[in-house]
Amino acid sequence: MLSHSPCPMQTPNLKMETLLKSALETSTLTRTGQSGGGCINQGEAYITDNGTIFVKSNSKPQARIMFEGEMEGLKALGATGIVTVPRPINVFDHPDGGACLVMEFIEMKGLRSLSSRLGEDLAKMHMQNVLLESRGNRITDKPAADYVAQFGFNSTTCCGYIPQENEWNDDWVAFFSQQRLDYQFRLLEKEKGDREALEMWSRLQIILPKFFKDQKIRPSLLHGDLWSGNVAQTKRHPVLFDPAAFYGHHEYELAIAGMFGNFSRSFYDAYFKVIPKSSGFEGRQRLYTLFHYLNHWNHFGDGYKNAAMAVMKSLLK
Ligand code: ADP
């Protein structure tokens, strides 16, 4: 999730360390000093008997839902065998309230030389489910993975700390309209009493199908919050982390990084080599950024209102 300011470093928490020692059955639990806080969570690395782990913790009551979703997302992304993500270990209740997510620690640095590899791998991951459909029930010596025919996910996932409604839906336009945009507008109305945005939304939702004319959209597994703060690289491969995963339109994945101008040209060239742009791509990107502006508005306040309203105005033209 977009970070506005660095979070304070985590101080040692003895109750937490006792819990981790017993839950992970390790006699060694040594802080490495590598702590990483996004804006939402605190992160801390420890050496254990079974390798180095990274623990994200959050004291909010909704932390368990958030971390369980992140764990399911990491499992699904890792299971593709195409992208590298930290292997999730488990979610525990935090002794001070909230929860923590324990995962494999990966030594990583900023994404630079492997941008194009990330673009290619991401596109291949987006195609994986789509290709399963076209292969049908072809008999191979490998057990076939199941084609996921709907949009959604097997658990709630959070983009930031706001839950995403992931109930399975056959129709992408209905899914994106109701379970993504409408959900954010309802939250704005409830939390901020904003009726101006809601009025524009009532006009926009009527014309949404025009952005999808002649498009046959199939579900792709998405990271769901793919901006530069959630990617990195090791010496050998790109790494993705902090997902808000679900099955959705592959183009949706590119919107948040596009909004902040985050990725290099080589990333996009490699991505579009595997999945070329289809007609109406730019208009749909604007539509997909609307979700992220609304989500930022709901997380960080009215500083994002103007941007969200401007996107809506341009979509209504
Ligand atoms: P948040 O959920 O608060 O946004 P992130 O998951 O983005 O937190 O993690 C914050 C930082 O912690 C990352 O930028 C990265 O540097 C570091 N980090 C996250 N996961 C791992 C991991 N598995 N191994 C090593 N470092 C990690």
TrEMBL record:
N-terminal signal peptide: none
Classification via Gene3D superfamilies: 3.90.1200.10, Phosphorylase Kinase, domain 1
Keyword field: ATP-binding, Kinase, Nucleotide-binding, Transferase
EC number: 2.7.1.172
Reaction equations catalysed: N(6)-(D-psicosyl)-L-lysyl-[protein] + ATP = N(6)-(3-O-phospho-D-psicosyl)-L-lysyl-[protein] + ADP + H(+); N(6)-D-ribulosyl-L-lysyl-[protein] + ATP = N(6)-(3-O-phospho-D-ribulosyl)-L-lysyl-[protein] + ADP + H(+)
An example Gene Ontology CC term for this record: cytosol
Superkingdom of source: Eukaryota
Keyword check for ATP-binding: yes
Keyword Transferase: yes
Matching Pfam families: Fructosamin_kin (PF03881)
Similarity comment: Belongs to the fructosamine kinase family.
Protein name in UniProt: protein-ribulosamine 3-kinase
Species, as recorded: Apolygus lucorum (Small green plant bug)
